[in-house]
Structures are given as structure tokens and as C-alpha cells.
Specification:
Cofactor: Ni(2+); Mn(2+)
Pfam families: ARMT1-like_dom (PF01937)
Protein name: Kinase
Strand content: 5-15%
Keywords: Hydrolase, Kinase, Manganese, Metal-binding, Nickel, Transferase
CATH architecture of one domain: 3-Layer(aba) Sandwich
InterPro entries: ARMT-1-like_metal-bd_sf, ARMT1-like_metal-bd, At2g17340, At2g17340_3_helix_bundle, Type_II_PanK
CATH topology of one domain: Rossmann fold
Helix content: 40-55%
Shape: globular
Radius of gyration: 20 Å
């Protein structure tokens, strides 16, 4: 379903939007902080975004869909750097004080203002093609695990392995440009349990009781993340009778998969009979979330998604941006899962974990 019209709150949120819901997980400042002086946390995150500029500029320079891309890329780097420096002098400039939603939004605005729409399009297409070629093998390996609990654990490990493909992280962007990434190698290198937040046993215990009628999954990155991580997991839910709504961004942002890209990916994964490696897809729905950032504020989603999600009994926020940096502490009327890999040292420090640690935060709503 395509997005149209005014954005609305996600009806699954438990708390009133106007009083209790706050998208951003990490508090950059408190009411007692001087409004005219940046806090240490703000300065730390401003530096994180400053550090990401070279990788964004490099991607923009190579965007052959834009004329004079190198000059425009330099203009982006200068404008966005100036905005971040302004925040250091005056936290209330540019609509501040800054938080992760505002800093991401300003970066996307500057990219679009100088003429870029999707600077990661080429690498997304390449990684999608590569991942699609591996999908059948990943599913086959999963199906070979007869014990349902162990199979689900393996699928969850696959979500974490796929989620490593994130070019919004300066460290991972550098690693990817040098060596690329192997999904199977990533599976083997997942940080061992217990993770910094680890409720997987509770989730699998509930899963074995087959309770969920409908799940809404806010998805993250292109390539291995959606195709080799989320889609095998989605297929398992479908196989056990759960309706699944996959919510994807309306507009491009970093290497996040968009609604239109997801439509194309799923069409390529289906066989001639419309099956997903032997599993019916009549209960699979694709929704445009109305979002255009790598993070998400659930007080503003598309009306179409709100309608599809209204009767769900499980919501999944996948990825660091949607499930950790925003919405980690969001409360829902139904069961919820926040799942993602920690890719910024600042997030690891806040959580008391390690870089590339895993977050698996499951909350069951008792009937």
C-alpha cells in the first residue's frame, strides 16, 4: 500500500502521544541544562555525525545520476559541517536542541537541497542482487534445523548478521569499502550471548506457543539485512499462520530499503506460483511507513500503515536507528520486540555494552 495524506500516530503505541511518548532513546540534555551551552552528550553526538561526513561525501561524489556530483558533494559537506558547528555554539540553532532525529533530518535536507536523492542507490542495488542469489541457500540451511526453537534462534542470529550492513556507521562504511561483507561470516562472528539486552529465551518461549496473529515489522537496511535476515524470519512467521506487515521507508535514507525497493525485492524472491521458497505469501503485506530517515518517530506514520497495524499483536522495531536509538523504551499495547546491533560507541556506552553487541528487548503484554 502506498502512502498518502497526513501522517498520524501509530495506534499500537500504549502511551498518549502528547504526554509520554518520546522517540529518542538517549537524552542529549535535561531541563536543568543551560539552554545556551551544549551538553557533553550533545558534543559527543555532534562529533559522531561530523565523523560520518567523509563517507557520505564519497558516496555523493560517485552518484552518476547527478550532474556535477563532486562539486555538489563538497557543498553538502560544507553546509552540513557548518550546521553541526553551529550547534556547538548555540544548541537552539537550526530548530535545536539537537537529537538523533533532528541531526538525521538536517543531513537528509542538505543532501536534497544540493541535488542528491539517493546517494547509496548503486551499492543498495549491488547488495540486493548479491543477497537475492543467496536467499535460497540461507532458507535451506534454516529449514534443515528440525527443532523449532533452535531454528528460530538461528533465524534471529541471521537478523543480527544481516543488520551489520549499515553504511550509516562510519566504521562499518569504511570496512565495507575495503573488504565488503560476508553474511555467513557475519553469522559466525556475532557477539556471544548474553547480549547487552537479551530477552531471546522469553521470545522463543512465547513463539513456541504460536500466539501471534499479526506482526508489524519496521525494517531497516537493504541487502543482507532485509533479504537474508528479515525475509527468512518473516517466512517462518508466515509458515506458522502469522500475518506479517513489513513497513519500509517512503524516501531513501542511507542504505535503508524503501517501499518501492521492497516491492521489487519480494517480487524477485517469489517463485512463479507466488510462493516464498514454498511458503504462501497471501498473508504478507508491504506498507509505506511514511518515514524518510534512518530513525523513526512513531507519532508520525502513514495512514495506510496505521490502518494495517491497528489489530496487530506483535510489533518489531528492527535495526539500531528504529529499535535502539529511537523507540527502545517505547511502550506498546501489544507484544513488542526491539532488535538490532550496536554500531556506535556512544550507544554501547549508554547501554553499558560493547561495540557490535546485540540488543534483543522483548516485552510481552499480559492478557
Amino acid at each position: 500500500m502506498e502512502s498518502s495524506g497526513e501522517l498520524v500516530p501509530l495506534p499500537l503505541l500504549k502511551t498518549p502521544i502528547d504526554t509520554n511518548y518520546r522517540a529518542c532513546t538517549i537524552p542529549y540534555r535535561f531541563p536543568s541544562d543551560n539552554p545556551n551551552k551544549p551538553t557533553p552528550t550533545e558534543l559527543s553526538w555532534l562529533q559522531l555525525f561530523i565523523n560520518s561526513i567523509p563517507s557520505f561525501r564519497e558516496r555523493a561524489e560517485s552518484d552518476d545520476s547527478v550532474s556535477d556530483a563532486p562539486a555538489r558533494a563538497e557543498k553538502f559537506a560544507q553546509r552540513y559541517s557548518a550546521i553541526l558547528e553551529d550547534f556547538k555554539k548555540d544548541p537552539e540553532s537550526h530548530g535545536g536542541p539537537p537529537d538523533c532525529v533532528l541531526l538525521c533530518r538536517l543531513r537528509e535536507q542538505v543532501l536534497r537541497e544540493v541535488g542528491f536523492r539517493d546517494i547509496f542507490k548503486k551499492v543498495k542495488d549491488e547488495e540486493n542482487t548479491k543477497a537475492i542469489s543467496l536467499f535460497a541457500d540461507v532458507v535451506h540451511l534454516s529449514d534443515a534445523i528440525e527443532d523449532e526453537a533452535k531454528r528460530m534462534e538461528n533465524l534471529i542470529q541471521g537478523i543480527f548478521a544481516g543488520n551489520i550492513f549499515d553504511l550509516g556507521s562510519a566504521q562499518l562504511a569504511e570496512l565495507f569499502s575495503k573488504d565488503g561483507m560476508s553474511f555467513l561470516a557475519s553469522c559466525q562472528n556475532i557477539v556471544p550471548r548474553p547480549w547487552v539486552i537479551d530477552d531471546m529465551d522469553s521470545f522463543i518461549s512465547k513463539w513456541e506457543r504460536k500466539p501471534w496473529k499479526k506482526a508489524v515489522i519496521f525494517i531497516d537496511n537493504s541487502g543482507a539485512d532485509i533479504i537474508l535476515g528479515i525475509m527468512p524470519f518473516t517466512r517462518e512467521l508466515l509458515r506458522h499462520g502469522t500475518q506479517v506487515v513489513l513497513a519500509a521507508n517512503e524516501l531513501p535514507s542511507i542504505n535503508d530499503v524503501t517501499y518501492l525497493e521492497l516491492v521489487d525485492i519480494i517480487a524477485k524472491l517469489k517463485d512463479a506460483d507466488g510462493m516464498l521458497a514454498g511458503v504462501e505469501t497471501t498473508n504478507l503485506f508491504i506498507a509505506n511507513s511514511g518515514n524518510d530517515l534512518p530513525v523513526i518517530d512513531l507519532s508520525s506514520v502513514s495512514q495506510e500503515l496505521a490502518y494495517l497495524a491497528s489489530d496487530a499483536d506483535l510489533v518489531i522495531m528492527e535495526g539500531m536507528g528504529r529499535g535502539i536509538e529511537t523507540n527502545l523504551y517505547a511502550q506498546f499495547k501489544c507484544d513488542s520486540l526491539k532488535i538490532g546491533m550496536v554500531k556506535h560507541p556512544e550507544v554501547a556506552q549508554f547501554l553499558g555494552g560493547r561495540l557490535y553487541d546485540c540488543v534483543f528487548k522483548y516485552n510481552e503484554v499480559k492478557a
